[in-house]
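Exam prep: given the inputs below (a chain plus D-xylitol-5-phosphate), describe the expected output before reading on.
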Amino acid sequence: MFERPIAPSLLAADFSRLREEVQCAEYSGADWLHLDIMDGNFVPNISFGPAVVKSLRPHTGLPFDVQLMVAFPGACVDAFAEAGANRITVHVEGEHGQPDLRHLLHGIRERGCKVGLAINPETPLAHAEPFFADIDLLLIMTVHPGFGGQAFIPETVEKIEAAFVRRAATGLAFHIEIDGGVNHETAAMGLLAGADVLVSGTALFHAPDMALAIRELRALPARNETALHR
Ligand code: DX5
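Solution:
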């Protein structure tokens, strides 16, 4: 496993040829595949569900990094775990469907998946902090979730830095993942602030050469060169 995983986001792929797109990501050197699950309720867009995830599972060895942007995440964790998710991330904002977020996080782990917690640009880091000991990954959204192809919100850099500092202070070892408008320039900002997982959709799936684009991301300097191996 690479020290700083790069996760192409399938949302930016050509949906008419998903299998080829996933395999292209794998052959191009991706570490994980990021899968955005949107229900048209928590976010104003609908993407795909567990049946699509399950149908792709036999065609790649890439770990599936599933982000649930849904109103009732607790109702679908089982379905995505069974479909082959390796990591499942839920939003700290999704209070309607998760009266007990810690219980939900533990439920993900009990299903044999790594546990992620996502936080939207306008949500203070303090909302996620009580759960730091329960997670393997903190996903800091660098756009408002819902659509690919948006511009990275520069104000989120401060939150990445704060998360890096808080993680060091607590001695915990969760990944700090960024997602939204991540390209060569914004990835550099995120990595220097302390991110160690890059999710990128448009900048990878729309690149003329995904392998080159991944190599360029991998060559960027990061804040923590001794970051975790997971
Ligand atoms: C927003 C999505 C996107 C996607 C990445 O909800 O989560 O951020 O994964 O797509 P790009 O890289 O195009 O922003």
